[in-house]
Amino acid sequence: MAINWYKYASPASFYTLAGKMVPFFAIIAIGLLIAGLYIGFFVAPSDFQQGEAYRIIFIHVPAAWMSMFLYVVMAFWAGIGLAFNTRLSSMMATAIAPTGALFTFLALWTGSLWGKPMWGTWWVWDARLTSELILLFLYIGFMSLQAAIDDPRRADKAGAIIALVGVINIPIIYFSVQWWNTLHQGASVSVTQAPTMAATMLTGMMVMVFASWMYSIAVILKRVRVIILERESHTTWVAELREKGAL
Amino acid sequence: MKPRHKKLAVITAGVAALGFAAVLVLNAFQSNLVFFFSPTQVIAKEAPIGKNFRIGGLVEEGSVNREEGTTVKFAITDTSETIQVVYTGILPDLFREGKGVVAQGKLDDNGTFVADEVLAKHDENYMPPEAALALEEAAKAQKASLTQ
After folding, report:
1. B35 vs A contacts (CB less than 8 Å)
2. What family is this protein classified in (chain A) (predicted)?
3. Can you state the percent helix, strand and coil of chain A, rounding each to 5?
4. Extents of the domains making up chain B
5. CA count, 13 A, side-chain hemisphere, A208
6. Fewer Cβ atoms within 10 Å of its own Cβ: the N or the C terminal residue of chain B?
């Protein structure tokens, strides 16, 4: 059976599809979150250097990874929307931004809480921390620019430019700890090398990473549904939903 | 080429050009993006001596001397060169001999680094204490078998 994927590029059919997917991802997210926090706080051993304080890694690393990954996805959809003039792609980009900003803030905040006891400071202007702060500003810039332009199609285009220009910051964040001397340590988990973490610690962290993925998907789909309704409020299919009392 | 493909090509080229520009800019600012200098760089006078700057390296084993009050003297090494550091204040929990450290301050006339801030720099290894102990003993055993 061939599925006509283009069908779901239409906001009306994607609205229904997303509505079916949200509970599915939300339930998995809650399950993984409970499992991840349990492993992180009760199963994983304490660290030889940092004792119990290292446990903030179970929030910090998933948040930092998601902050970068979501930015790339946001820029991808914004770029597709700009190139092909597909409305749903731009709506996806708009829906991703607040979740991305949330994870960036979480990464900076937990990092600061972690930095004080371990490094001895809340904040330093090293390349890793500074570039992650710029990421937060990029998200905020994207959201405020879109909010400042009344015409949604023009807002999509302007936002896409910011999103695409800002994508350059992502490799800078990721490789900052290799390219420059930073106070932040190098990556414990990377594609090219074996992880430098004990197995249970790594398991807990990866479960939390998947929990953040599922949470992000659920929340973004939920948000994109609202955006679709807002922007399509003049159409007949939304009017029909309203008549049926489905809104 | 369809117009929308042309648009995509223009966008891709634009991002690539910006990326290239970013690489050039970052290369030009290379030295300003450095958070700390190594003792070798300080000895070679590559650090901004006379101004405030940061030194990073390992706390040399056996070099930590606690003086009156909270004054501490220790040496930062990158295994080839060593700089003496004096600091008054509270050290972070992770400040340990043989571990990473970043100190901010100024060189005095005798070549001693007078720090006004000391930060601990830890590595990316996370393991339970038992595993760390086992690794240490394995390293000792290996060393012993090498010297025999």
Report:
1. 124-127, 180-183
2. Belongs to the CcmC/CycZ/HelC family.
3. 80, 0, 20
4. 1-33, 35-121
5. 25
6. C
Is A121's CB within 8 Å of B117's CB?
Answer: yes
Q: What is the torsional sign of CA A211, A68, A197, B94?
A: negative
Strands B65-66 and B53-59 come out as: unpaired
Residue A156 domain boundaries: 22-187+196-244
- Round to whole Å and give the CA distance between B148 and B133: 23
A190 vs B contacts (CB less than 8 Å): none
Q: What is the CATH number of the domain that holds A121?
A: 1.20.120
pTM of the model: 0.87
- Among A120, A124, A196, whose Cβ lies nearest the Cβ of B125? A196
- Bin A197: left if φ > 0, else alpha if -120 < ψ < 50, else beta: beta
- CB–CB of B90/B70 below 8 Å? yes
The predicted-structure confidence for B8-42, as pLDDT tens digits, reads as follows 888 888 888 888 888 888 877 776 677 888 898 88
Are B119 and A144 in contact, with CB atoms under 8 Å apart? Answer: no
Q: What is the CATH number of domain B35-121?
A: 2.40.50.140
> Is residue B97 exposed (0-12), middle (13-18) or buried (19+ Cβ within 10 Å)?
middle
List of chain B residues whose C-beta atoms are within 8 Å of the C-beta of residue A54 = 126
pLDDT tens track for B94-124:
888 888 899 999 888 888 899 998 999 888 8
